[in-house]
Amino acid sequence: MKKLFAISCLSVLAGLYSCKEVPVYIPADIPGQEDTTYVLSSVETPQDKKYLIEELSGVQCVNCPAGIQKLTEMSTTGEFANKMTIVSIHVGTFAWIIKDDTKPQYNSKQDFVVPGSEQLLDIVFGGDPGKPCASFDRLRIGRPQDPLLLPNYNQWSSFMSSARDSSTTTPVNIYIETAEGASPDEFDIKVRLHYTEALSAKQSLNIYLVENNIRDAMKYALKTDTNYIFNHVLRKYITPSNGKRILSDVAIEPGRVYELRTKLTIDRNDKNQAFWNPANMEVVAFVSSADDNSKRVYQSQYVHLKP
Length: 307
Description:
Elements (H helix, E strand, L loop, with lengths): L8 H5 L10 E4 L6 E6 L11 E7 L6 H13 L7 E7 L26 H7 L9 E4 L19 H11 L5 E9 L5 E10 L7 E9 L2 E6 L4 E7 L2 E5 L6 E3 L9 E10 L15 E9 L7 E8 L3
């Protein structure tokens, strides 16, 4: 059993805030993770809203390059610039590696399918509707029965507008800190949440590890590009793929703070992790509702893995 640690509010916060509760570490349900919660009397101003886009992709999905290009354009220019957190999840149909014994020069070097993605697909998204498709803050755009994953990338700007119109602010601020550990492949990660509003919905925290600038094979209708550059690729679920339930036994009120500390170690003996480049990696964190009738994302943030 983990030890419980009481932390002095004055020593931790250096007099900037006052606490209504003494923070106590809560035993975490994942080895190597520990978390704590407390309440501050000073409530922060809400951060600018950053919308989470989870795009389903695959190296044999001939239309997926156009889909991710659309998201990249939306996130870098125009009204949604710097307001989007993009994660490309390789799972389901067309995510199989390219393997052709008669033309090995066109084969995939690595597999982008991550353990846990099938569970995410089933538990959160309710199945694979075909690719490319994307979820915008896990909202049902339109009718309550509409799917979370939306095809037709030509309409994604409209879906993004709907997500923005549904929420222009956030009830929870997210801060992510990373630090290098004892070796170049070890990292300490800290995620801190500060609630700016009271919430009654069940809460879920997700932490993803993603990588950019990956060169590997991508299949098109008439050719295979062995020098295709993949970006925003999900590499690992640091929390469970369907989220870590948090703050189940306390009131979620303005000033409520939740902190999670965890470690990441890259296993160079793993056939896929051997390819990972920490310099190209980002840590993504987001908070969402865990209610049965809503999975909406309240806020998302990301930082570089290497400080």
